[in-house]
Amino acid sequence: MQNLENKRYWIWLSLIPNLGVKRKQKLLEIYQNPEEIFNAKEKELIKIGGIGENTIKNILDIKVRQIVDKHIEYMWKNKIGIITIQDKEYPKILKKIYDSPISLYYKGNKNILENQAFGIVGCRDATEYGKSAAKYFSYNLTKKGFNIISGLAKGVDSYAHIGSICAQIEYNNINNCGKTIAVLGNGLDTIYPKENEELAKKIIETGGTIVSEYPLGTKPDKINFPSRNRIISGMSKGIVVVEAKEKSGTLITVDFALEQGRDVFVVPRQY
Q: What is the four-CA torsion angle of 256, 103, 21, 35, rounded to 10 degrees?
């Protein structure tokens, strides 16, 4: 397990409320690392344009600083690590997107995050055809050595993870199979939906990974999922869409994929 004490200030940076990716990037450009931000004085921070008084208060908030130890303790006990944008393990493909997450919490095998991957996304209320299609493409892409990335939601996401796991179990001793990665819209101390707790365990047991840019304690609020979707597409070579509704998170992921220059593939509907 990594030395989490070395990541103390990165964990602290992730805990600051209402501090978005772009403002974190700006602060890191000025101070180079989060320890320097931690030690910055109020009069210094005030001089930085675009930060704002409320954000400065949050940066200096003693309560946020005091809970870091509890987070480190929980992460150590539950084998949760953190990769920062300055680490060599950070996925290079993700670093190239406009709003790369500053850090990623992970549970499982961090060594697979650099491998080529396809995202498979679709609706939660998937038909049997949709579930079968997600599983089919996931299974066969995994056999070819690609990681499968999805969001651990009900429906298509679940069957994308399941298809990859099935391929790993069947073929892992024959060739170099891919793995599966679940990107969450909440902290890694919670699995959402709860019914996928066993699936999450299976992902880790078969050499996959669960990741999130959100710190421990972050609830699965709807506002988090569009940001989560940019990571799914950002870590992927291309996106496979299965049964997307007209207004859905799936199409948000597609928009991100197109902005990021990713290939988008669509499974034909069943007639």
A: -170
